[in-house]
Amino acid sequence: MGDQFDDQSLTSPLPGAVEATSAEGPTGPAVGRDEWVARHGERRSRRGGRIGVMEERLRSAPWWAWLTLFLAVLAVVPVFSDSGYVRRVAFDTVLYMLLALGLNVVVGWGGLLDLGYVAFYGIGAYTYAVLNSDKYDIHLGAIPSMVVVLLVGTLAGFLVGLPSRRLSGDYLAIVTLFFLQIFLTVTINSDSIRGDNLLGGPNGILNVDGLTFFGHEVPVDHEGIFNVAYLYIGLAVFAVVYVALHFVNHSRTGRAWRSLREDSLAAELMGMPVNWLKLMSFAFGAAVAALTGVLLTSLNQSVFPLTFSFPLLIIVYTMVILGGSGNQAGVVVGAILISVTLEFLREPDDARLLFYAVILAGIVTACRWSRRLGLVLGGTFVFGQVVHTIAKQIDESWVSGATTGTGWLADAVNDWVIVPSELAGWITPVSYIGLIALTLLLTVLRGWVRYAVLIPTLYLAAFVWENVMLAKPEPTRFIVLGALLIVLMIARPNGILGERRVEII
């Protein structure tokens, strides 16, 4: 009986299947073929509405054309802005893009929860600093140092992956997080290891050489302004990494990584070397992170251990999740959005504009263009005016404070939101708790009651923003980042450009 089947019989329709399919019409399933599996790709990529139509049209363009256009747009940023701040933000965004690409290899393709990723970033930065500074009087140069850093990063990723190759999920996260803490502990206390100052301790390594190519050093600034050459070097490195990872993703290794991500047990049963695939995933991601550390250290001409702390890991993970884990273009888009958002939240005026713009966009999305939109906006405005007037009549000191920042929006908000001259200590926790309670209440209410409660909730959100959050910009950045991630994940659970996973129910 085994002679009746060959390799083609498992993938080809049975005899008579074509005739049977034709008899049932063009929409009938083929006999001897799993129609659901045959249309798997179509189901995975299909999206509804205008977004789906737009996405299908955009996907028709080749990937290299989009990459070329993207690099050209970033390359002309210095042409439209001679601000050193804007150019530096663009360079930092390129660094985030590289970090997101490297983490996407481990998390998005390999499906491994690596919480020690930024340690590889630090390893690359410190390796370059050791090879190009007066610390050990070694000045190797950029190109040889990059080769060494790539090898060191790959080896570090391989070694970290060795004890982790049989772990997954929470256990893998704990082990890799422990590796990050070891890195921070060693670098912070590296000024007294066996009586020697190996890596400078908390003071780091200073006076690091800039990038040097064939004996010519690239200065970090030009006439006191950020040297745009570093931005172009960063873009060149990004292009090489992106193209290399694209081909890896579409190779047998990339397909094996995705199989490992979906079901490691099934991949192992299919004969795939699961442990080796995990090690390769760690090594590739670590190499990209280490190479990114070269760009960071060469520009700053110094390196410090706390640069690679846990908050940076959270930011990079947010970029990957927001953009769409597993999608190269998606994680790059996520890196750009998060980087620009964090910069907006540094200045009170920009942060205020972003906050109220997001609130307005959220209301429009929830209410659509209907009467409810007018009722909510008008009701919130009137509610604020009434509350502000009542508070002023009770005690004028309750509204005599000044909002943080300047501009027309700050003046308008100052006449609408209660801003006391001195904020009592109990107001901050009470307002936070009240805002969280009202937000949770909105999730269970329905109908007109929901919109009635929405009005005081919006006003309380404005009160907390103006009186509490703007006064503390650093924690505010992460709070807003978390809220933005929650909202977008509710709207698009797979990320902006993430693929919809196919599940058999």
Compose a concise summary of this entry:
The chain is built from 22 helices and 6 strands.
Blueprint (SSEs and pairs):
Elements: H1 17-23, H2 35-38, H3 40-45, H4 49-59, H5 63-75, H6 77-80, H7 84-109, H8 117-131, E1 132-133, E2 138-139, H9 142-164, H10 169-188, E3 212-213, E4 216-217, E5 221-222, E6 225-226, H11 228-249, H12 252-262, H13 264-269, H14 274-300, H15 310-323, H16 328-344, H17 348-367, H18 371-394, H19 408-414, H20 427-442, H21 448-469, H22 473-491
Antiparallel strand pairs: 1-2, 3-4, 5-6
Helix pairs in contact: 5-11, 7-11, 7-14, 7-15, 7-16, 8-9, 8-10, 8-14, 9-14, 12-14, 15-16, 17-18, 17-21, 18-21, 20-21
Describe what this molecule looks like in 3D.
This protein folds into three domains: 2-38, no CATH class; 86-344, ABC transporter involved in vitamin B12 uptake, BtuC (Orthogonal Bundle), CATH 1.10.3470; 350-471, no CATH class. The protein is built from 22 helices and six strands. The chain has helices spanning 17-23, 35-38, 40-45, 49-59, 63-75, 77-80, 84-109, 117-131, 142-164, 169-188, 228-249, 252-262, 264-269, 274-300, 310-323, 328-344, 348-367, 371-394, 408-414, 427-442, 448-469, 473-491, and strands at residues 132-133, 138-139, 212-213, 216-217, 221-222, 225-226. The strands form three sheets. It has a two-stranded antiparallel ribbon with strand order 1-2. Strands 3-4 form a two-stranded antiparallel ribbon. Helix 8 (117-131) runs parallel beside helix 10 (169-188) and helix 8 (117-131) packs across helix 14 (274-300). The chain starts with 16 loop residues before the first helix and ends in a 14-residue tail after the last helix. 32% of the residues are buried.
